[in-house]
Amino acid sequence: MKIPTALLAALLAFGLAAPSGAADLIDVYRAAQSGDAVFAAARAAQQAGQEKSRQGIALLLPTISARANSQFNDITTDTGSLFVSGGNKQYNSHGYGFTLVQPLFRQQNWAAYSQAQLQSAVAELQYQTAGQELILRVAQAYFDVLIAQDSVQLAAAQKSAIGEQLEQAKRNFEVGTATITDTYEAQARFDLIRAQELVAANDLEIKQRTLQQLTNVSGTGLSPVGTNLKLEYPEPNDQMTWIARSHAENLRVTLAQTALALAEKEVARSRGGHYPTLDLVANYNENVQTGGTFGASTVTSKIIGVELNMPLFEGGATQSKWREADANREKARQDLESARRNAELQMRQAFLGIATGIAQVQALQQALKSSESLLEASKLGQEVGVRTNLDVLNAQQQLYATQRDLYQAQYNYLLSQLRLKSAAGTLAEADLEQVNRALH
Fold this sequence. Notes:
The chain has 440 residues and is an alpha+beta fold. The chain has two domains: 5-59 and 106-274 and 317-438, Outer membrane efflux proteins (OEP); 62-76 and 88-105 and 276-310, Single Sheet (Outer membrane efflux proteins (OEP)), CATH 2.20.200.10. Helices cover 67% and strands 14% of the residues. A four-stranded antiparallel sheet has the order 1-2-3-4, with no helix packed on it. Helix 9 (389-424) packs antiparallel against helix 10 (429-438).
């Protein structure tokens, strides 16, 4: 986009050109990857979630336990038996043993194992979703700073132009070629733009702090949009194709599908409370006594076998857990339907946002040319007496307002490009790099 000569000169005078060494969108994104607390929390949750898979495998593997004991015995025996002597005996005894339990059939364990794998998948999907949301948050915060930065610089340029018009009105009044009304009009506009400049400066400070909170770096000195933004429609340029993608690949839809599968496994696990369990059990024990009624002894036992347990009644807890799981499964179904609808709505908004953005940018580009022509014509008309000072002030205000609207439309168009990919579930750093190139 070619910026009109008069406006470009004013903007350059007030520093709208990109400063040397300015941070671009990718620089800010890389900083956010390491500095954003929300994304760091998601990364930690993903690492924790991966442990669920290992915990699920452990449910199918054997458990081995060891035990040991050592004790002092002081036993006094009173007996009338001819074969067992009475009296007091003191001796030590100790022992140790090992037990191995290998589940052979535990319905609940198999269901819990499947749940653990799904829980790991959920953690991974949540991390991917956080990554996509980070891209959108960074882009939104970056563009918020840019539009606030543009507003400050446009307000400064407009104040300068109005200031020149005010001085001219004062000179014309002094020489009698204009009325005091022209001076009052220019002074009122000058005071108004000063107030607007202060508001814009405060807004810029807030937007920079917001970006700093996200990235942990300063939000100053960002690269603004370039002068030759290339406008492109989605490929393919078919809304229904993109909606179908959102139903199939949107991360929140996939997350809801996985949550439904997890709820199904919980139903199976709760039903498993009615099933018997069968375990292979092996024991090894050794007990040593240094004394006793029959003297010192060492007893070693080795046992291997199977153990069957059948739950008969647990106070109704098993049935209650099954009903709870069934209700949660229905909730997961409804959550999935909601996720699909939201994904479709987001896709429609993004797709239409691109189409509308392109049309709006093109219209504002033409409006900017017309606004410059109007300003030049108004200044010339004032010189020859067919236009008033108010006409020039209005033309100036229209020119700067159109420029700001154009900047905003460009940023909205670029954000819609990213939101389209996010709704389709494919948003990645490469898409952010493409937007970053479009900014220059």
